[in-house]
Amino acid sequence: MRFVPIDTPKPVSKIGLGTWQFGSKEWGYGPDYEHRAADIVRRALDLGITLFDTAELYGFGRSERILGAALGDDRDKVVVASKIFPVLPVAPVVQQRAVASAARLGVRRLDLYQVHQPNPVVADTTTMRGMRALQDVGLVDEVGVSNYSLRRWEFAEAALGRRVLSNQVRYSLVDRGPEDDLIPYAERTGRIVIAYSPLAQGFLSGRYDATHPPSGAVRRANPYFLPENLARGAALIDTVRQVADAHDATPSQIALAYLIRHPNVVAIPGASSVEQVERNAAAAEIDLTDDQYAALVDAAGRFRPVTGLAAAPKLIRARLRK
Ligand SMILES: NC(=O)c1ccc[n+]([C@@H]2O[C@H](COP(=O)([O-])OP(=O)(O)OC[C@H]3O[C@@H](n4cnc5c(N)ncnc54)[C@H](OP(=O)(O)O)[C@@H]3O)[C@@H](O)[C@H]2O)c1
Predict the structure, then answer these.
(1) pTM over cut 0.85
(2) Nearest CA, atom 14, ligand 1
């Protein structure tokens, strides 16, 4: 395993484990998945993964419970990251919710406590007052944000008066926006960009095509899995596969290796099996050449999916066909 070259109380592995899938029916993994989830966590620990990401929202607390139970006595050795869903993130609410998350996880301290998304009404000055109080009493170690623009990340940091260590954002070969400003900022200032949906929810695994789309409500709502976009993505997947062949690796591993080539980026793929977490952890060891990196950038730049408003009627039709 490799780690982010930043001074943090505990080392942060370049590949973490995302746990939205835990206890969340909308991924469609069925009731047996809960046991597998515990095995995935135990295996991740064996493989040197130290960053475990959850949120109070995932399975309405179920993900935090499953993760905490599976970590067991190893909870204190790793970076446990959770998130507040900021419905009314005023200081006293932030404090209550952190206590509840820590209780579900069974931890004395949240290593990283993140604001899940910017609140359009409540300013970060208020939210960060709560975060600062949590740090002062020792319930929270590092503060993070998620889905924040650079401007709002900087504002949150000014409001906290301390570093806001990380910004967790959608970042993958098909969503490269963070490369414009968030990643350069993280590199300049010693912060971390945590890449969520780093495999574009499995789109980049190359396992799916128009005749074999994934199941589950989450991915039925994801425009990348529209038949048209799966077809449009074929050329990109071909390039990812060619690079994978050169490394005796899988497309998913290359998709992760691409992201974490940036020193201040960590990726937190979710996993539906122990085998996947093994492969994902191994991706930390893959070094892409400059030519391979450039080929991936080029292929990613040519991918033009149907998204936004244009995709909405197609998503609704796909949903009605189920
Ligand atoms: N902050 C936020 O707003 C936010 C939003 C979304 C996610 N997140 C976090 O980020 C984490 C990851 O994002 P995500 O779950 O949306 O997407 P993801 O990590 O891109 O995709 C996860 C899915 O990809 C497939 N997969 C994983 N490893 C694979 C491998 N080695 N080979 C082939 N397929 C593989 C699995 O699905 P199948 O096997 O079923 O294909 C798995 O469930 C979440 O768990 C959550 O912690 C945060």
Answers:
(1) yes
(2) 197
